[in-house]
């Protein structure tokens, strides 16, 4: 009951077969080769790698123009942006935020070193048009006193029983920020790992609901990542995709999730854990499924290369990427990652998937270059 449902799942088997036969050739254009196919999971569009390059080029011949179009399309929304967290009485919502992690005092005056890398981060939340009044169901955190960030996506099915589906994600992320800050208070480096932050934040969250979550912590030049569900993290190095967390799905459009005791959700220990060595200049992109369901990896790399060419800071890049994903979500003829996953699972679906979109951008830097 408490998981996202696709419009395709409402169709009969006969209708699915009919539409698939008509749309299949479009989706096949974005499929991996036969040699690559066996390495993929049916509902894991983020793992397609180089196979997505063809799809990324569709409609992306002039990325600058397309980014501008996507931002103009949401011009009315931009006028109502606020830096406050969503409240039930809000009439509209959008948020842009940025914070640079504090440089440990003991590193002041020392030569730059990969051992004291820091993050400069910015985030942008773009709610589903129908959920603007309550600020959507996604949230994020950027820790003040350490190198930790995260995103969460509240499971929308809770709205069917009168529960604010975004409340769990917001409280979980506030708790994660508190845990991350407390872990390094008075201690310049080291501290909690990503899995510890997620598990402790989960233990402190008391509201009803459930959500997916992705938490990342920078310790020296190592990025520890815990990802549960279909939110995720991507790393770009020299403009190319270097790493992307795989999605965790029980079935098509049914992601792993953590939640309150009455949610029958997964334990936080189910999160997949990764440790990746990063270097100055790397760009880290965290997002909820509203991003990954609508944009291919190589497509995002192209958009972010454009952003860096325009010397945008992290908050502006997050805003541009969110608007770009919204542009894709509203395109009914786009063979999106979500459409491809639906096709692989035997459902008829074409176009993007309208959803809340949360984007968090981190630039890996040496302190002297902040």
What would you report as the Rg, rounded to the nearest angstrom? Answer: 20 Å
Give the helix/strand class. Answer: alpha+beta
Number of domains: 1
What percentage of the residues does DSSP assign to strands (E)? 15-25%
Structural shape:
globular
Binned, the helix content reads 25-40%
End-to-end separation: 46 Å
- Taken in chain order, the helices and strands follow as HHHHHEEEEHHEEEEEEEEEHHHHE
What is the CATH first-level class name? Alpha Beta
CATH superfamily caption: PPM-type phosphatase domain
Q: Can you tell me the CATH topology?
A: Phosphatase 2c, domain 1
Low-confidence stretches: 1-65, 68-113
Strand order of the largest sheet: 1-2-14-13-7-8
In round numbers, the mean pLDDT is: 76
Largest sheet, if any? 6 strands, antiparallel
Number of helices: 11
CATH architecture: 4-Layer Sandwich
Number of strands: 14
Task: Please write out the topology.
Layout: H1 13-28, H2 34-37, H3 53-57, H4 63-73, H5 75-78, E1 95-100, E2 118-126, E3 138-142, E4 148-154, H6 167-184, H7 194-204, E5 210-219, E6 222-228, E7 232-237, E8 240-244, E9 249-251, E10 254-255, E11 258-259, E12 272-277, E13 283-287, H8 289-292, H9 297-309, H10 314-329, H11 337-344, E14 357-365
Antiparallel strand pairs: 1-2, 2-14, 3-4, 4-5, 5-6, 5-11, 6-12, 7-8, 7-13, 9-10, 13-14
Description:
It is a single chain. By secondary structure, the chain is α+β, with helices and mostly antiparallel strands. The chain is built from eleven helices and 14 strands. It has a single domain (7-369), classed as Phosphatase 2c, domain 1, CATH 3.60.40.10. It has helices at 13-28, 34-37, 53-57, 63-73, 75-78, 167-184, 194-204, 289-292, 297-309, 314-329, 337-344; strands spanning 95-100, 118-126, 138-142, 148-154, 210-219, 222-228, 232-237, 240-244, 249-251, 254-255, 258-259, 272-277, 283-287, 357-365. A six-stranded antiparallel sheet has the order 1-2-14-13-7-8. Strands 3, 4, 5, 6, 11 and 12 form a six-stranded antiparallel sheet that branches. Strand 7 (232-237) and strand 8 form a beta hairpin. The relative contact order is 0.19. Residues 120-364 form the PPM-type phosphatase domain. One of its GO terms (molecular function) is metal ion binding. It catalyses: O-phospho-L-threonyl-[protein] + H2O = L-threonyl-[protein] + phosphate; O-phospho-L-seryl-[protein] + H2O = L-seryl-[protein] + phosphate.
């Amino acid at each position: 009951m408490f998981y996202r449902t696709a419009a395709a799942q409402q169709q009969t088997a006969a209708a699915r077969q009919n539409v698939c036969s008509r749309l299949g050739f479009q989706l096949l254009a974005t499929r991996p080769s036969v040699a690559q196919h066996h390495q993929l999971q049916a509902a894991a569009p983020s793992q397609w790698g180089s196979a997505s390059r063809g799809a990324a080029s569709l409609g992306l011949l002039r990325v600058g123009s397309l980014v501008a179009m996507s931002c103009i399309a949401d011009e009315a929304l931009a006028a109502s942006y606020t830096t406050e967290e969503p409240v039930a009485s809000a009439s509209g919502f959008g948020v842009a935020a940025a914070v640079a992690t504090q440089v440990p005092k003991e590193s002041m005056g020392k030569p730059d070193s990969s051992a004291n890398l820091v993050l400069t981060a910015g985030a942008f939340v773009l709610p589903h048009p129908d959920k603007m009044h309550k600020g959507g169901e996604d949230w994020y955190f950027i820790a003040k006193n350490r190198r930790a960030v995260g995103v969460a996506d509240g499971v929308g099915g809770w709205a069917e029983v009168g529960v604010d589906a975004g409340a769990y994600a917001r409280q979980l992320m506030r708790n994660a920020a508190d845990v991350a800050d407390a872990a390094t208070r008075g201690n310049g480096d080291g501290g909690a790992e990503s899995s510890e932050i997620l598990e402790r934040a989960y233990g402190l969250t008391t509201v009803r609901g459930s959500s997916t979550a992705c938490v990342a912590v920078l310790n020296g030049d190592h990025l520890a990542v815990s990802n549960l569900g279909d939110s995720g993290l991507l790393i770009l190095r020299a403009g190319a995709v270097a790493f992307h967390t795989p999605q965790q799905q029980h079935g098509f459009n049914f992601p792993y999730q953590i939640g309150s005791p009455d949610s029958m959700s997964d334990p936080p220990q189910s999160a997949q854990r990764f440790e990746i060595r990063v270097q100055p200049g790397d760009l880290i992109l965290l997002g909820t499924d509203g991003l990954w369901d609508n944009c291919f990896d190589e497509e995002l790399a192209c958009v972010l290369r454009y952003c860096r060419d325009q010397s945008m800071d992290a908050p502006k890049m997050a805003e541009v990427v969110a608007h770009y994903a919204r542009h894709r979500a509203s395109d009914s003829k786009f063979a999106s990652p979500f459409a491809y996953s639906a096709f692989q699972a035997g459902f008829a679906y074409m176009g993007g998937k309208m959803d809340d979109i949360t984007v968090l951008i981190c630039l890996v830097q040496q302190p002297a270059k902040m």
